[in-house]
Amino acid sequence: MNRPLVVISALVLLIITSAIAGLSFGPLELTNNEIFQCVLFNCANEITDMVIWQVRVPRVLVALVAGMGLAIAGAILQNTTRNPLADPYLFGIVSGAGLGATIANLVLSHELSIALPLAAFLGALFAITIVVLIANVLQRMEQLLLAGVAVSFMLAAITQFILYFGEPFATNRVIFWLMGSLSRVEMSNFYVITGVLVISLIVITALHRQIDALLLGDESAASLGVNVNRLRLLMLGLCAALTATIVAYCGGIGFVGLMIPHIVRQIIGVTTLKLVIGSALIGGSFLIWVDIIARSALSNAEIPIGIITSALGSIFFLFIMVRSKNTR
Amino acid sequence: MNNIIITLLVLTLASTTFSSNGATVSNAKPTVIALSPHIVEMLFDIGAGEQIIGTSAFADYPEQAKSIPVVGNYLRLQIEKVIALQPDYIIAWQSGNPSDDLTKLKKLGFKIIYSQPNNFADIAKEMRLFGQLIGHQKQAERKAKQLLDELDVIKAQYQDKTPVIVFYELWSRPLTTIAKGSWPQQFLNVCQAQNPFKRVATPYPQVNIEKVLQTSIQLIIQPLSKNQTDKQGFNWQDWPIIPAVKNNQILQPNADAMHRMTARSLEELKHLCSAIDVTRQWLLNNNEQAHASH
């Protein structure tokens, strides 16, 4: 049995274990037997039924697909731009979503449950459209990242300006929305994210050899018959749609897209298919565990999920960097 | 005969059920989760404190409120805990609680009532609403009337007084004040304190000290919280050019009572108006002396 297959099997096991753990932890103490009964047969009472099926199951499932989606988007962007720092958020997606969320908070504050994800999604797409237009005008796709950073700052400035003149509580809501949370998710969110994720995976699988060719350099890829700019734009659009959908429902969850692909490269491989499968499996498990910490660490409150991903992610990232230097 | 016995039995059973239902209604008052410190305080005011089974962080008044289980803060609620508590009503703060969590709770079938007091009259209105809802109508009515009557008395007492120019320091770093649309502005309106920044577009504007220097501030109001020391306030002693600083006219009212939208803030209004009046008298006396010396 070859090594990647063993690793992937272990990661699938990790996902299953993480999902079971995700159902077991929470502020309401439930025994393993109660959870097992409730998931497979009938719940002991209405409270257990509500907690398991309306709170924990949607959270675990959305954490799984959101973690997968963010990690895959990061992996694809890093491979297509050949930039190890590429991250879906560097293209202004979160700033755009933040601007959308701000406008929704101020203008449609009574219909936030529908308006907020929609506005955040449109804001994220708006950001990515500007980035792509600028890169097109410059005729240099390698400047996509720089354009993304500039657009990100510009949209953040507009958001802050609007918030400054807005109602003070709206400011708080937007700032903390941007820190990310899975507490608001429901099953319909899971279906939407899964739909976009599946489409992305189909496209990536179909084009994985062409994306691999990009790793050799633009000229080499072009000589192999790859339309470099078109492929890069397609992948960027795909990652943008995937990230925007996740951000719309879960808020800003940083570092997953940047960190997970680097871990996968160390333990599975660098080519697109291996990277994408590994990123999906590790990203999904990672976010389930992060959400477990978010809802269980403090007895009286939840921690925004983005704080934990950034804290854990940065430490783990540095650890991997030091370890790889020592083994080199 | 048998029919009579059966009829009697049915009637007895029916009357028992009726009386037991009646007892349930009168004894078991609805339980409430109150999701902000001001709602908790309001419920204690109308005598419904014991019906609160869950609350949010910082609900620290009255003392008994500290022992109520906390189910979240103004950013995030622990939905599982709310489900486990099974409250009859959730009273939430419209602008100060996470709307997404509340939407989710509503979908799960919980009854959510919103509180959003923007002025003293709203406090009375909400007291009446909560009283009606959770079975304390009489005390709520009494408290609401008392609040509105006291407010009228204070308004009448100060309405013809000479305005005093004040600077309201909401926060020191960055220096932030209040304008129209903010909660503390109504205190200044009632006490006849003139706020030079009242017309600024945003309710809590940040201001440059240069702007403050341009207006002849006669009194500085620097509310401090229980956990806040003098050092966390703006250091006005660096600016003796401001008349209020030169004349040592700086007030430090209780921020916790003033900024919490409950009947307690009316007490703070009384204190503030009376303290502003002391400055007003001081200014009048000094002006008279200045005129006399000329």
TL;DR of this structure?
Chain A is mostly helical. Chain A contains 13 helices and no strands. Chain B is an alpha/beta fold and 294 residues long.
Describe the structure.
The complex is a heterodimer of chains A (328) and B (294). Chain A is an all-alpha fold. Chain A has one domain: Orthogonal Bundle (ABC transporter involved in vitamin B12 uptake, BtuC). Chain A contains 13 helices and no strands. The mean pLDDT of chain A is 87. By secondary structure, chain B is an alpha/beta fold. Chain B has 2 domains: 30-137, 3-Layer(aba) Sandwich (Rossmann fold), CATH 3.40.50; 160-293, 3-Layer(aba) Sandwich (Rossmann fold). Chain B has 11 helices and 8 strands. In chain B, the strands form 2 sheets. Chain B has a 4-stranded parallel beta sheet, sandwiched between helices. In chain B, strand 1, helix 2 (37-45) and strand 2 form a beta-alpha-beta unit. In chain B, helix 5 packs antiparallel against helix 6 and helix 6 (137-158) packs parallel to helix 11 (264-293). The interface between A and B is medium-sized, with 32 and 30 residues.
Which homologous superfamily in CATH is the superfamily of chain A?
Answer: ABC transporter involved in vitamin B12 uptake, BtuC
**How many separate domains of chain A?**
1
Label the CATH architecture of chain A: Orthogonal Bundle
CATH architecture of the largest domain in chain B: 3-Layer(aba) Sandwich
- Multimerization state: heterodimer
Mean pLDDT across residues of chain A: 87
Low-pLDDT segments, ≥5 res of chain A: none
Report the portion of residues of chain A in β strands.
Answer: under 5%
CATH top level assignment of the largest domain in chain B: Alpha Beta
SS-derived structural category of chain B: alpha/beta
Content-based structural category of chain A:
mainly alpha
State the end-to-end distance of chain A: 26 Å
Give the biggest sheet of chain B: 4 strands, parallel
Which runs of chain B of at least 5 residues are low in confidence (pLDDT < 50)? 1-26
Percent in helix of chain B: 40-55%
- In N-to-C order, the SSE pattern of chain B is HEHEHEHEHHEHEHEHEHH
Rg of chain A, nearest Å? 20 Å
